[in-house]
Write a structure and sequence with these properties.
The chain has 442 residues and is of the alpha+beta class. It has 16 helices and 13 strands. A hairpin with a 6-residue loop joins β10 (334-337) and β11 (344-347).
Amino acid sequence: MVKQLSKRKNLILNELAYSFMTSGYRESPSLLRFMTTSRRVQDRSKKKRVHDLEIATEKWKLASKVLFLMEVLKREPEQIIPLRSLEQYRRHISLPKPHKISDFIRKSPKLFELYKDHKRVIWCGMTKEADNLVEEEAKIMEEHGEKAAEHVTRLLMMTVDKRLSMDKIAHFRRDFGLPYDLRTRWAYKYPQCFRVVKSEDDVEYLELVSWNPAWAVTELEKKVVGVNESTPPTPGLLTLPFPMKFPQNYKKIFRYGGKIEHFQKRSYLSPYADARGLKAGSQEFDKRAVAVMHELLSFTIEKRVVTDHLTHFRQEIVMPQKLMRLLLKHFGIFYVSERGKRFNVFLTEAYEGSELIQKCPLVLWKEKVQALIGYRGRQRRIESFSDFSDMEGFDNLFDSDFKGENAIAELESEDTIAGIEDLSAPDHEMEVRDIYTAYTGS
């Protein structure tokens, strides 16, 4: 009995010593064990979240629902639709019963209007202010077309077979700033970059037409090294470190046995180089996967994307099976927001607080739409998550998670419950539990 108590005492002292060395604060062993055995992203302590990026996720939920309805109206011949026809989109905007579609629409009178015809059928349309915004968006989309075509082309260049199904590209339509007529018109506007082909089973693919050496240079290379367009480098091994940004409450500890430094110094294969020879699970494979994710997020207009969209591309761009583990492990480069059932992954270097550092015209346009949502013309500053639920006039109509046009897909169970405890890697690899314990108060 005495030996057992002595052994237990030594165990507790060792855990306390480890906690003190890594975080600088004394903690209970139970809390330490909780942080090392968490099974889901949602199980992270509130102190371990990057609140600014959680707010960035939350603040667009409302606007995304409104933008979805605006897009529905844009597709109508006269840009009006019977109110009862909007019932079919209840699931897309996650509007639970008994809430009415009409109440949802009346919450934004500066964007939508309801009226009855002579048969007393209620119709929904957009206001003059909303019509002007639609015209402005079309102009921005047209100007953004060349850059969007470049990003889609570069995505095709990163794939193994240099082609992707149109269905999978459609998942990134809003993220890349592509128009809703992607399949019918836009995909045929740039024949010098790609073409639409059909497989034997009648599946449409977007296929690369020609390789552009100047585009086979990563965004990171452009920032650090620059690009000589006359003689662009051939895609191969890279040694550039990835920018890392941590929240303010992250305690700067530079020891982890040199794990972060070792990772940053390790060479990796360019996302545009042939990766079919890499062995899944190897250090080279994982480092390249980080580079692919960094490049892909650099293409998006908000430098973030829904994580379950990424699962559709794993084979084509040679990514790990358990992608969530990779994102969690390298959270100084990426941050996974847990707001709702559909997680968002951010490129941390692109944000200062909850705001994008560089906003493209499409993001600025979205902010204009957001400013007109609700009864008030001027929205108050949002400081925390609880502020959203306190916004007067919204009640519970906007509480549910927005799922969007491609809302059916859920996170794969292996990604959703990826265990931190199971992130076993060699000693020189970063461990999620190591990084978690470096937070102040962790």
